[in-house]
Task: structure prediction
Amino acid sequence: TYNGTWKVDRSENYEKFMEQMGVNMVKRKLAAHDNLKITLEQTGDKFVVKEASSFRTLDMEFTLGVTFEYALADGTMLSGSWGMEGDMMKGTFTRKDNGKVLKTTRAIVGEELVQSYSYDGVEAKRIFKRG
Ligand code: MYR
Result:
């Protein structure tokens, strides 16, 4: 189950990924230490998400397979949806400003939640521990 609170523990290639996303260097440095914490609460197809970081706090909800909009911390708007493939969450989102696609997955690996990101040929991971 994805339910619970997850604190980012480490990231792989996340700075390169943010660079490809067009995030400037100052913000990348800050974002590398954003202390991101995500709380997920799934009921059937519905997820309630609480996000907290050094940038912002955000409460939202989505339903698997249903398109919603999501603003990144810098205001970049995404539109897309999450789906479930087996035990893995798979999200496909489109940037509203340039039409490019951002793909993301979430999987529980051992005791950790591993989120992958892919955009414009660059892949990254952030790995969360229960907290
Ligand atoms: C959620 O389930 O947490 C809410 C919806 C997430 C949508 C996709 C998230 C992509 C985040 C990419 C971060 C990029 C930073 C430059």
